[in-house]
Structure formats: structure tokens, C-alpha cells
Design goal:
- This protein is globular.
- The protein has helices spanning 14-17, 215-224; strands at residues 54-60, 67-76, 79-89, 95-97, 108-114, 118-120, 132-134, 140-142, 152-154, 166-168, 179-181, 198-201, 211-213, 232-237.
- With 247 residues, it is mainly beta.
- It has a 6-stranded mixed β-sheet, with no helix packed on it. Strands 7-6-11-12-13 form a 5-stranded mixed β-sheet, covered by helices on one side.
């Protein structure tokens, strides 16, 4: 994504900051979707859950939706059980297939992704085990396609990452109170695909590509995620080419 200082769709929090109204190594996969009306918990109907025992699902009614539901699940003795659920917000322009997404479109990329680390302006919730980076005044997320640090946390910002093409994390005091990095375009970044996709706290409206939830839910999720459980985030729609069951 481009800088929040130049476009409203600049970073995933930018749309929130400006009040847009709401209306890997995991790699996205696209096998046949599960039959409509299939029984069982959502994770059992998905093509892949990342191979671990923790899964977060972010589900919208359709590709033009800007709202939906985030749920988090645990697999115990071979059975998936929902641990919690919260209302979610998506990109101002809805959702799109992650493998063909374009930077600066204010769309949330669908697919299955890992969660490399967490960060925040607030302290890590009690019990947090996922790596958690405190946001400082010098903490940035580089979205400059010409930079060697493209789609990376940088602290301080390197010279080859233009400030107008980066996001100063401390500028989003609400949204980045606590957040999880989503592994979209992260491990082998493709220029122009998009940078800075997070699961973070709600702002005032739809995002510019991230998934957001209420602050209390975000705190619960950060404390719940355990690296040893290989947690993943699946983003998708109820049906169609971007159905969450396809990933």
C-alpha cells in the first residue's frame, strides 16, 4: 500500500483514520468449495487450516461486504471448537482474491495466512506468548515498492523507504493499540501486491485492506494465540470464488 499521507487507501488503518464509513508461509489455495449447507464447524469444511490447532476465521457475506465476523477456534482431540467471536470490518472496497490483489485498492485479501508476530502501542495482554513488539515513535511499516524493506517493520525507517510511502505506526493510536501481522505477501513479497495487512483494533469505519475487531476482542486474540499451535488466519466470503471454505 502507499502512504497514509498521500491517499485515503494508503495503509490498512488509513481509511479508519479518515473516517471512511463501513457499508507464506501459508499460501492461499483454491480447491473446490465445500457443498452449500455442509454440516459441522467451519474449520472442518475448509480445504486447509494451516496444520495447527488454532485458527482464526474472518468471514464476510460477499466480496463487496465491509463487515462480517471474526471467530477463533481450537482443535482439541481432533475436534474444532469455537473459542470466541466478534464483529469484524474489512476493506472499504470489500474483499478480493489475495493472489491477484493490487496495492492501493482498499480491498482485504482473501486466503489462508500465518501470523508472524504481534505489535502495539499498548502493553501485551497478560499471558501473551506470541512475539510482541512495542510501537515507538520511530516504528514504521515500509510500503515503498522501491525499498529493500518493502512490507517490513522498520525501526528506524531506512533511507530507501520514503516517508510518504510508509506508515508511521504511532500515528494510529487506536487501531494499533494491539495488532497481529498477517502473512499476506510477507514471506516472499511481490511488489505491487500490497503491504501492511494486519488484524487490528477498530477505527471509525471500514479499513483500507486490513481486518479489524473491537479492542476487547483484539486483546483476547493476542493473549490466546500460541506460536506452538501454528495459528493461521483464514479470510473469505460465504460463497463464490472467494469462499472461505476454498482456502
Amino acid at each position: 500500500m502507499t502512504s497514509a499521507r498521500t491517499l485515503a487507501s494508503a495503509a490498512c488503518a488509513a481509511a479508519l483514520a479518515f473516517g471512511v464509513p463501513a457499508a507464506a508461509p501459508a499460501v492461499p489455495r483454491s480447491p473446490a468449495a465445500a457443498p452449500a449447507g455442509a454440516a459441522g464447524p467451519l474449520p472442518t469444511r475448509m480445504a486447509d487450516t494451516g496444520g495447527g490447532s488454532q485458527l482464526i476465521t474472518a468471514r464476510a457475506a460477499g466480496p463487496r461486504s465491509t463487515t462480517g465476523t471474526v471467530s477463533w477456534w481450537e482443535r482439541h482431540r481432533g475436534r474444532w471448537q469455537r473459542v470466541g467471536s466478534a464483529p469484524a470490518r474489512f476493506g472499504a472496497n470489500g474483499l478480493t482474491e489475495g493472489r491477484t490483489r493490487k496495492q492501493g485498492t482498499s480491498t482485504t485479501p482473501t486466503g489462508l495466512y500465518d501470523l508472524p508476530f504481534a505489535f502495539g502501542l499498548r502493553e501485551a495482554p497478560a499471558g501473551t506468548t506470541v512475539p510482541y513488539r512495542p510501537v515507538r515513535a520511530s516504528s514504521w511499516w515500509c510500503q515503498d515498492n522501491a525499498s529493500t524493506a518493502y512490507n517490513r517493520w522498520v525501526d528506524p525507517r531506512p533511507r530507501d523507504c520514503a516517508a510518504k510511502e510508509a506508515e508511521r505506526l504511532a500515528d494510529y493510536r487506536v487501531q494499533y493499540g494491539r495488532a497481529l501481522v498477517v502473512g499476506f505477501n510477507y514471506h516472499r513479497p511481490v511488489r505491487g501486491r500490497g503491504a501492511g495487512i494486519f488484524l487490528h483494533v477498530n477505527g471509525r469505519g471500514a479499513t483500507a485492506g486490513c481486518v479489524s475487531v473491537p479492542a476487547r476482542a483484539m486483546a483476547r486474540i493476542v493473549a490466546w494465540v500460541q506460536p506452538a499451535a501454528r495459528p493461521h488466519l483464514a479470510i473469505g466470503t460465504d460463497s463464490g470464488p472467494t469462499a472461505i471454505t476454498r482456502y
